[in-house]
Write a structure and sequence with these properties.
Order of helices and strands: HHHHHEEHHHHH
Distance between the termini: 49 Å
Shape: globular
Strand order of the largest sheet: 1-2
Number of helices: 10
Structural class: mainly alpha
Helix content: 55-70%
Strand content: under 5%
Length: 191
């Protein structure tokens, strides 16, 4: 393993992803989320795994998961980043049969998750990227996701709109119909 090469390439990859998310969030008025997106990737528990398992065009979490059956970096990441549905998994409050379920995500994090999926697809697919890539990626994994039904519907509407009408139309819809109805503080903007 060429440690220096992996370190430089991994940092370049996460910086590029962060820049893409920041641009998308800024277009939607989610400035704080754009600035703070995925900062945990720069912490040692995630950075060292990213460097060790760096692979061109593929998440380092996959490499660690293939070796050990789980990814410590992913467990660290999803527990610190609210734009991941996995952050919102908890026990239900049902006294007759508690079980693990997805909790409803605040709208600003659903939108950030959508932007994150676009940006990850652009980052990993490069020039091969199409607006249907985030939906294709989601469809391959959706049956395994523990996610609130309303959150799932909202994400799927956005992913289908992106695939069918393009990024500009999806972002316009988010600005006009999703974020417009959210109070400024709940969207993550300073009043």
């Amino acid at each position: 393993m060429n440690y220096i090469h992996n370190a430089l390439e991994h940092i370049k990859t996460i910086n590029h992803h962060k820049m893409l998310v920041m641009q998308g969030c800024f277009k939607l008025g989610l400035y704080w989320q754009g600035l703070t997106h995925d900062l945990s990737k720069y912490t040692w528990p995630e950075l060292r795994i990213g460097i060790r398992y760096f692979q061109e065009g593929r998440s380092p979490h996959v490499g660690e998961r293939e070796k050990y059956g789980y990814s410590t970096a992913w467990l660290h990441h999803k527990g610190r980043n609210r734009h991941h549905a996995e952050y919102w998994i908890d026990y239900t409050a049902d006294p007759n049969g508690r079980h693990i379920a997805g909790m409803r995500m605040p709208v600003k994090y659903v939108v950030e998750m959508f932007v994150d999926r676009i940006s990850a697809s652009k980052n990993y697919r490069g020039e091969k990227y199409t607006d249907s890539d985030p939906l294709t990626y989601y469809n391959k994994r959706k049956e395994y996701m523990v996610i609130d039904d309303g959150t799932r519907r909202q994400l799927e509407i956005l992913l289908h709109m992106l695939a069918d009408k393009g990024e500009d139309a999806a972002f316009a819809y988010i600005r006009r119909h999703i974020l417009r109805n959210e109070p400024r503080a709940r969207r993550g903007r300073v009043s």
